[in-house]
Amino acid sequence: MVILKTFKSSLCIVSVFLFVFFIVLNYNLLSESYSNSFKNMLQLGASERNVDDLFPIKFYHIAFVDYRTNTPRLRIFSINGCLRNSKYLNVDIYQKGMRTPTRMKVYGRPLEGHCPSAYWLATPCFFSAHTFETHLTVTGGLTKVVIELGLRQVELSVQEIHNPVQIGITMCVQPVYYYTQWQNIVLYIEAWRAQGATRFIVFYHSSTKDTRKVLDYYQKLGIIELRPWPSFGNLPNDIAEKYPNIDNSAYIFAYFLALNICILEVKTTIGAVIDFDEIAVPLNGTTLDYATKEMTGTNVGALIFENNYVSMNPSIYTSDFSGVSSPTFYSKIGPQKVRHSKFKRFISYLLFQFIFNASVIELCQVHHVESFLDKSKITKKSDGALLHLRFNVNSLKANTISKPFRFFPNNASHHIENMHETVWNKVKSIFGKTPPPVSLKSLNTFNICEKRSENQGMCHGATCKSDMDAVHEWVYDRTEGVFLSGEY
Ligand SMILES: *[C@@H]1O[C@H](CO)[C@@H](O)[C@H](O)[C@H]1NC(C)=O
Ligand SMILES: *[C@@H]1O[C@H](CO)[C@@H](O)[C@H](O)[C@H]1NC(C)=O
Ligand SMILES: *[C@@H]1O[C@H](CO)[C@@H](O)[C@H](O)[C@H]1NC(C)=O
C-alpha cells in the first residue's frame, strides 16, 4: 500500500497516530456541527447553483449507467474543487431513437465522504475525486451524455453496468504510479490466477521501462487489461490561473477515482482492489472457492483479509522465485495498545484488504467498503490472510513467526517453475537480455519527497514528478481524452 510504505520508523508511526487522532477529532466536530437538518437546509437552500464554466472540474470520459438496481442510475466521475453548497450538473441525456435530449439536474458528492478529505495527507489537496449520480427514468439505451457547463460542453461516452454472471475474481489494480517492482507483477499474476482470478484491470500512470515491458507482455497474452491514467492536464485557459495545477493538488493521483471506476467494470461474480504486492489467501483451497462459499446465500457482501508482512529467501528481486513456497512471516508491526476505539478502527482499516461480491458493491475506500447497493450486506473478517510483500521487512525489526498460509493452493513447485520460465526463458522476449536488477534508489526518492510534502503541509506525494524525473527515465501514460473539461 502506498500509505503503508510511508510508515518507515517508529517516530513516523508516532506522528501518524497523532495525525489520526486529529482527524478523528475533526471528524467528530464536523459530524456534530453539520447536523442533518443543517445539511438539508444547505441542500434545499436558495444558494443552489449549477456547476458552470468557471468551476474547476475535469470529468472521466465515460459515464456509467448502472443497471444493477431496479431503477438504473447514471454515474459520472470527476476530479474537482469542493462543491461546497449544493451544486448540480446540467446533464443532457441522449437516448436511442429520441431526437431531443432529456435535461437532468445531477448532484455530486466526494468519493471520500468529505471535501477536503478528512485523511490528513490529503487534506491540503485542492482537488478531490467526486461522483455525480441520478436515477434514470428514461427507458431506452443511452447513446451519450452531454454536460452543459455554462459556455462549455463536455461530451461523455456511455457504458452500461449489469449484474456480473461470469464466475471468477476480477482484480482492480490502482494506478501504477512510479514505483512497482516487476517481479511483484509476475508473482501477483501467477498466485492470483491460482487463487481463481480471471481478469486483471490495471490502471497505469507511470513506471520504469522494465515494469512497463512486463505489463505489455501480460497485456499481449490477454491476461491484463491496461487502463490509461495520464496526467489530469490543465484547466481551460480562462480559469487555469485562478486554481492550483490539478496534478500537483490531487492526492496520489486521485486513486479513489480509479478504484471506484474499476469496481463498476468488474464482470465477474467477485472483485478485489488489491495492489501488486499483496495476495489474499484462505486457509485451505482457493480464494475464489472460499469467498464464493462465504458470500453466496448469506448477508456477507465483502470479506476482509488481515495484513501479514512476508519476505522470501532468496528474495524474488533476484528473479529466483524458489523462496515463494515457504514465505517468512513477521509478528505484528506497530503499536499494539490503542485505546480509543474509533482510532483503532481507523488504524485497522490500513491493515486490511478486501474482496467483494460485485453485484452489490456501491462505493469503496482504499481499505474497506464504503457502501453496498443492498443495505443488508455486511463486511466480514475472513480467517484467511493478506500476504503483503515488503522489500525492507527486515528493517522493521519484527520477530519472525510461523503461519499456515501459502501463496498457492497446491502444487507450488509447478507455479514456481512457471515463474522461472517467464522471467528466464520468455524474458528474452520481454527484456531482450537476462532479468534486470531492481534499483531501490527511486523508491527512496519518492519517500523523501512524500515526507517533504507532508512536512510542508502540501498535498501528499503529488508534487514529486520533478524529483522522480531527476533520478530515472519513467514511462508515462500520455493518452489524450481521458479527463475532459469541455469545449466552447
Ligand atoms: C481442505 O479442503 C479439502 C477439500 O475441500 C478437504 O478435503 C481438506 O480436509 C481440507 N483441509 C483442511 C486442513 O481443512
Ligand atoms: C452476490 O449477491 C447477490 C445478491 O444478494 C447474490 O444473489 C449472489 O449469490 C452473491 N454472489 C456471491 C458470489 O456471493
Ligand atoms: C503439479 O504440476 C505438474 C507440472 O509441473 C503436473 O505435472 C502435476 O500433475 C501437478 N500436480 C497436481 C496435483 O496438480
UniProtKB/TrEMBL annotation:
Q: Where in the cell is it found?
A: Membrane
TM region positions: 12-30
Give the main EC class: transferase
Record's keyword terms, sorted? Glycosyltransferase, Membrane, Transferase, Transmembrane, Transmembrane helix
Any GO molecular function = glycosyltransferase activity
What is the protein name given in its UniProt record? Glycosyltransferase family 92 protein
Q: Does the keyword Glycosyltransferase apply?
A: yes
InterPro entries registered for this protein in UniProt = Glyco_transf_92
Q: How does it sit in the membrane?
A: Single-pass membrane protein
Coiled-coil segments:
none
Q: What is stated as this protein's family in its record?
A: Belongs to the glycosyltransferase 92 family.
Annotated Gene Ontology cellular components are: membrane
Q: What is its EC number?
A: 2.4.1.-
